Amino acid sequence: MVEPLFQQLQKLQDEFRGHPPVASWNPDLCGDMDMVIRADGRWIHEGTEIERQPLVKLFASILKKEGRHYYLVTPVEKWRIRVEDVPFLVTQAARQGEGSAGEILLTTNTGDVLPLDSEHPLLLKPYGNPPQPIPYVEVRNGLQGRMSRDVYYQLIDWAEPRQPTEPPAKLCQLWLQSKGEEFLLGQY
């Protein structure tokens, strides 16, 4: 099942630079593929980790989310896969400038590089046991990435502590600025 899909992907990669237009592809569901994206960012097919990073990047480029489900799609095939949390892990952060003129760039485990901005906002969602608010970012087309621990600590280092303007005013909030936007990183 993976080999014919891989051959289609190679053709698509030659045709498109960057990410193919998966949002416009709506083939019928072919079935469920024994593939899972683990919460730690590893891609597992039939119980074995896919270790070839170019293959992982290729699969990530045709990933699509519809409702709660994730699919690998081509113009003619659609296979449902499992995702334990979100499909991407943000593994690097870089900052140029500070304050409202500054910009934060984030890199995912599959090589996507995106600015922290209004199109790629920071979202706080519960994760772990017990659940704690962790930052996620919109990567593309409804697909999200969770910040790795290293990136989370880097963002905390860059954040500006502020007293909230609305109750409960006892908490301190951490705010990030990037591309003229402000994002709440957390509160304590």
Automatic annotation (TrEMBL):
Coiled-coil residues: none
Domain DUF1285, residue spans: 20-86, 87-184
Pfam family, one: DUF1285_C
Alphabetical list of InterPro entries matching this protein: DUF1285, DUF1285_beta_roll_sf, DUF1285_C, DUF1285_N
Name this polypeptide is given: DUF1285 domain-containing protein
Organism field: Microbulbifer elongatus
